[in-house]
Amino acid sequence: MIKMKITRLGKEFATLTAVPEVGDQFPEFTVKNSNGQTVQLSDLLTKTLLISVVPDINTSVCSLQTKKFNEEVDQYGDINFVTISTNTPSQQSQWCAAQNVKKMQLLSDQEQNFGKATHLLMSDSGLLARSVWVINSQGQIIYREIVGEMTNEPNYNQVLDQLNQN
């Protein structure tokens, strides 16, 4: 079993185990949309899916990451873009309104189903590990980046290059 350490400001924060790998089927999960309705993985796989996972939408790096992907949505009409965090649907809606984010769907893992299914839940904090996933319409992981230092942004160029290959 592969273990991955997550740090925050250089100090060990959590250890992840059994996180899905490229080539694996992405695990089934449920989250809530802004209306509180349940959304499943299968609902999102109408086309290639980019999942941007952030620990807390109301922090600077998470905000930057979500806004960056929101800016890219129009260039990739054949890809679903979503952000998942453990914030409530209400907190996510308030953030979207304040930041004028209208293109990217934010989904709430307040119940931690996504975090447990993917092994991205950092149990001591109840937060999700920052990561970016690209999943094809058959549910197979074709790109994965788990950011080892919580205060760092993902490698946007790498993930966008992957999207351009689809």
From TrEMBL:
Occurrences of domain Thioredoxin (ranges): 20-166
GO molecular function: thioredoxin peroxidase activity
Endpoints of the signal sequence: none
Keywords: Antioxidant, Disulfide bond, Oxidoreductase, Peroxidase, Redox-active center
Pfam families: Redoxin (PF08534)
Protein name per the record: Peroxiredoxin family protein
Species in which this protein is naturally found: Bombilactobacillus mellis
